[in-house]
Write a structure and sequence with these properties.
By secondary structure, the chain is mostly helical. The chain is built from two helices and no strands. This is Polyketide cyclase.
């Protein structure tokens, strides 16, 4: 069996972006699949 590793607050990655749009518009673009496809790349990011 595998023992799950304990995580500390330092084990995370935080990305911050300054977007020139109201939060409601950004949230809609990320939460509606058709709009999200326009914002985010398709396929692998690496």
């Amino acid at each position: 069996m595998n023992k799950q590793a304990e995580r500390s607050p330092r084990d995370r990655l935080v990305l911050e972006y300054a977007l020139e749009a109201p939060p409601e518009k950004v949230w809609r673009a990320l939460s509606v699949p058709e709009l999200r496809e326009q914002w985010l790349p398709t396929g692998d990011l690496a």
